[in-house]
């Protein structure tokens, strides 16, 4: 019970019984502040205490003190305790559904485990969280797999002298590998409960709170694809350099042939740089995040353990039992690193989209539209 100083003496006899028996958990001393007037308890806090203790006081011949008349306490504004007596209109079903979809943390956070508090999703809790995480992970790994296929096709053409028809014959195997392997890894991610929410972006993905999942399911596949692709790309470029030297020795239409070859090498190298640099930066952030995750989790634990409203986070032991003090805990995660990670992932998609925007791409989509929608047979054309 929150008792004002002036009324304490008059109410001491009546409320002594309440203090001796745990008829209510709402027992507070006056809040000491620099304000001229003390902060009063909220009306709902008073009503909760009265409902729990008034019947007990009547049994012992006491009445509820007039100084604690709940009607004297504020129903809104600054007061002690959560005020639940003010009537706030409930949101409509449509607005509630909209907020659940486009809310700030609608995917990464939710009232899991039957608690009213918003908690970070872990282990794939929630269909929306799992679906978003699987889609994000699946296409991330698929893009790296297609990068390896691109470098492999370049290697076969430049180093092994394969023709376009021979490489095109491997298309079914390329598609099976690039779409099948990410699907298998996505199943493994779901089975091992490696999905959790990202409190910085509000989305669900793999390994935000699990360092091993971040290393095994993201960093190792991405870095492996980058290294393998660069190796195949370097072998192809070395073959192109040998062909360039051979053309110079032939002295037959040297300028035209070398110009075409250098243009091809420049385009391939340019695309490789635009893909490798952002992907490598994202992989480096993932590695750093996995290595620092235990320290970041300790910091988060300490902040919640020392929080003034620590009970709502599930901490019931005294503050002296916390692992660290506020002045000795390690620094938390740098937000700029999280920003760089997601920025690099977006850059890869944007650069690839810009790179394929050409006349040949438009013509390919026109042919596909004519064959699928209009049911027209493909017309053989000479490509130059």
Automatic annotation (TrEMBL):
GO terms for cellular component: plasma membrane. Residues 125-360 form the G-protein coupled receptors family 2 profile domain. Signal peptide: none annotated. Belongs to the G-protein coupled receptor Fz/Smo family. Disulfide bonds join 46-70. Residues 28-82 form the FZ domain. It comes from Ancylostoma caninum (Dog hookworm). It comes from the Eukaryota. SMART domains: FRI, Frizzled. Its main location: membrane. One of its GO terms (biological process) is non-canonical Wnt signaling pathway. One of its GO terms (molecular function) is Wnt-protein binding. It is a multi-pass membrane protein. The chain crosses the membrane at residues 137-158, 170-195, 215-243, 264-291, 335-357. This is Frizzled/Smoothened family membrane region. Keywords: Developmental protein, Disulfide bond, Membrane, Receptor, Transmembrane, Transmembrane helix. It is found in: Membrane.
């Amino acid at each position: 019970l929150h008792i004002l100083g002036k009324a304490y003496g008059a109410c001491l006899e009546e409320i002594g019984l309440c203090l001796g028996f745990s008829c209510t958990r709402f027992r507070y001393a006056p809040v000491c502040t620099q304000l001229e007037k003390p902060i009063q308890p909220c009306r709902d806090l008073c009503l909760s205490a009265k409902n729990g203790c008034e019947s007990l006081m009547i049994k012992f011949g006491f009445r509820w003190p007039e100084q604690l008349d709940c009607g004297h306490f504020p129903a809104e504004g600054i007061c002690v305790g959560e005020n639940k007596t003010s009537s706030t209109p409930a949101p409509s079903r449509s607005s509630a559904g909209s907020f659940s979809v486009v809310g700030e943390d609608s995917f990464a956070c939710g009232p899991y485990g039957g608690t009213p508090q918003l908690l970070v999703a872990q282990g794939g809790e929630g269909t929306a969280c799992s679906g978003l995480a699987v889609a994000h992970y699946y296409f991330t790994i698929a893009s790296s797999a297609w990068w390896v296929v691109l470098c492999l096709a370049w290697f076969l053409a430049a180093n092994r002298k394969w023709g376009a028809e021979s490489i095109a014959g491997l298309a079914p195997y390329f598609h099976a590998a690039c779409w099948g392997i990410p699907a298998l890894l996505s199943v493994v991610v779901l089975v091992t409960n490696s999905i959790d929410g990202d409190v910085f972006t509000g989305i669900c993905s793999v390994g935000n709170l699990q360092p091993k999942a971040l290393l095994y399911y993201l960093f190792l596949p991405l870095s492996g694809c980058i290294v393998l692709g660069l190796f195949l790309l370097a072998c192809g470029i070395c073959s192109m350099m040998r062909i360039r030297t051979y053309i110079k020795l032939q002295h037959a239409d040297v300028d035209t042939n070398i110009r075409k070859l250098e243009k091809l090498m420049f385009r391939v190298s340019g695309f490789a740089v635009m893909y490798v640099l952002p992907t490598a930066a994202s992989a480096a952030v993932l590695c750093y995040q996995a290595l620092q995750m235990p320290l970041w989790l300790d910091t988060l634990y300490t902040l919640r353990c020392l929080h003034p409203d620590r009970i709502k986070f599930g901490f019931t032991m005294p503050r002296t039992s916390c692992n660290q003090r506020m002045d000795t805990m390690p620094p938390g995660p740098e937000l700029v690193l999280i920003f760089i990670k997601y920025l690099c992932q977006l850059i890869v998609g944007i650069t690839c989209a810009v790179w394929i925007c050409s006349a040949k791409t438009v013509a390919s989509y026109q042919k596909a539209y004519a064959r699928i929608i209009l049911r027209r047979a493909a017309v053989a054309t000479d490509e130059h």
